[in-house]
Design brief:
The protein is mostly helical and 272 residues long. It is built from eight helices and no strands.
Length: 272
């Protein structure tokens, strides 16, 4: 019976995540284009016909339409339902790992910010200030609320300070990395948006997990970039977005970071 209830709740959470993913598709497309998130309503980019509510059902709407506009038959990218599905899966993972309403609701917001920013960076090589700055503020508010819920005023102050220190440490580290990389390669190694995204991650995760996320991002980015160069998919002069790797590092740190840090300390500092 418990397994059945858990399965039903997981399906409900997946549906909620898919709906948020549908909104993230709007954010990912419209914010870089400077278009309002609210108007015009969802429509076909070619014939501009407004989508019916049943056409806009996450994942299922795309399947019902067989990946084409109902009116002009223009192909609809499978990326849209893929983002909805990925968001749903991330929401389920948060639901399984963290308790609701706190900190689970906050981490639903965090993974949504990460997904939107990483895909915008992938598409445009930019990380909009409107998202990194709002994500930073949301992270600090999240720390304040969680700290208050756990230990009142003192807990709120300590948790908020942890978020502030995490943001400051993260942005300092990435500013240093950017400076050293620019000196080594004779050109800008990272965009300013990467440091702002790192600061946002620090506000949500704290300095320890933010540093782990940064290390994982560099390792995964180096591996992916080296592989792409070896396969001839990119050349050495081609810019490569770093935001997606930061997001991946943050996601891994969110779900597994504490266990990874504890395992590292046991392995190399067993007497601590």
């Amino acid at each position: 019976m418990e397994l059945l209830i858990s399965g039903i709740l997981s399906l409900l959470v997946f549906a909620i995540g898919a709906c948020i993913g549908s909104f993230l598709n709007v954010v990912i497309y419209r914010i870089p284009a400077g278009v309002s998130l609210l108007y015009p309503p969802s429509r076909c980019p070619r014939c501009l016909h407004r989508l019916k509510p049943y056409d806009n059902v996450p994942i299922l709407g795309w399947l019902w339409l067989k990946g084409k506009c109902r009116h002009c038959r223009t192909k609809i990218s499978p990326r849209y339902p893929a983002i909805e599905a990925v968001t749903g899966i991330l929401f389920v993972l948060v639901f399984w790992v963290f308790s609701l309403p706190l900190p689970g609701l906050g981490y639903w917001a965090f993974v949504s910010w990460l997904l939107a920013l990483s895909l915008i960076d992938w598409d445009t090589l930019t990380l909009p200030n409107s998202l990194t700055q709002s994500g930073l503020i949301a992270g600090l508010i999240f720390q304040l609320i969680v700290g208050w819920a756990n230990a009142g005023v003192s807990g709120a102050a300590n948790s908020l300070m942890m978020g502030i220190i995490g943001a400051v440490v993260a942005i300092w580290i990435f500013d240093i990395v950017t400076l050293l990389g620019s000196i080594a390669f004779g050109k800008t190694a990272m965009g300013g948006g990467d440091a702002k995204l790192a600061a946002m991650m620090g506000a949500w995760l704290g300095w320890k997990l933010a540093l782990l996320a940064g290390f994982l991002a560099c390792a995964i980015g180096a591996f992916a970039g080296g592989g792409a160069l070896a396969l001839g998919l990119i050349d050495r002069r081609q810019p490569m977005p770093f935001g997606p790797f930061l997001a991946i590092g943050a996601g891994i740190s969110l779900f597994f970071g504490d266990a990874m840090i504890a395992g590292y300390l046991r392995l190399f500092f067993p007497t601590l």
